[in-house]
Amino acid sequence: MNHSERLAAFVALGQRLATISTDELTGLAARARNQNAWFDLPNVTAAVAGIAHLLAEEPLRHWAARYPAEPTTVRQVGVVMAGNIPMVGFHDLLCVLLSGHVLLAKPSADDTVLMTWLMEELVKIEPRFADFIKVLPRLNAADAFIATGSDNTARYFEFYFGQRPHLIRRNRTSVAVLTGQETSAELALLGPDIFQYYGLGCRNVSKLFVPEDYDFVPLLDALQGFGGVLNHHKYNNNYDYNKSILLVNGVPHYDTGFLLLTRGAALVSPISVIHYTEYASEVDLVDQLTDVAAQTQCVVSASGRFAGSVPFGRAQAPGVDEYADRVDTMEFLAQLP
């Protein structure tokens, strides 16, 4: 297979996902939820749409043209995939295969149903990919590694993979910048950034930066349309538990009935909780964001007005060139010896 044939296969996969029938998607989501209760129909639907977005032909071709068409030497690249949201390992799969290397995949135990289905669909479109995709319990044969996990598992990965080329990702989360000048419509757009995937993704907003004396009422009102998250029993359980902790400990907080907001320095918050920190000036805000840049995946603001941010509502729709941890996976693969 040459580069253009590999690219054409991924374009066809994107078209397949964009036109998947409701019945097939419902059945796929049911199988996924049997394995992982968080992977309900809304989550799986969003993930499928997100991958179809990544594989839109024009931006995909433009992105791929920035890198070598063929590798100097074909390598076996082991990929340890996360499983916090559906098919989150797809971008690494795309990068490895499109660059012409062999994928040694270790899907998360929480996401084998969907990742297996996705790989099978790709092979149906281009059967020659069967020789380039190997799903393995161990990745000892890999020449290089890409791994995504927590800060703790990253240390494990460094120990075991450190002698070979590796790209290891750690805990990240996303934050929102608010000024108090946002309209109700703009604030409502922040809802998907918080609630999609029930807050489990690294692109989910878990922390707000607000000006001193910020009035939370407009924000809380704008988010009322997202109360359906309580219909998921695991989210509901998290909400009840975290609310009880805040009440027992007498921690001041805002409560929408399905989301808890409390002042907190921590960047990562529990499911159903959002932390916020106040800033005194734009200089203070920039300083605070700089301090947490290494742990931040994405910054969002209304219409993307804050420098370096993306608009509210776009955190969960990254382009194909928006790399996790802002490390260029394709460049890493192109430089393999």
Automatic annotation (TrEMBL):
Pfam families: LuxC (PF05893). SUPFAM superfamilies: ALDH-like. Keywords: NADP. It comes from the Bacteria. InterPro entries: Ald_DH/histidinol_DH (IPR016161), CoA_reduct_LuxC (IPR008670). This is Acyl-CoA reductase.
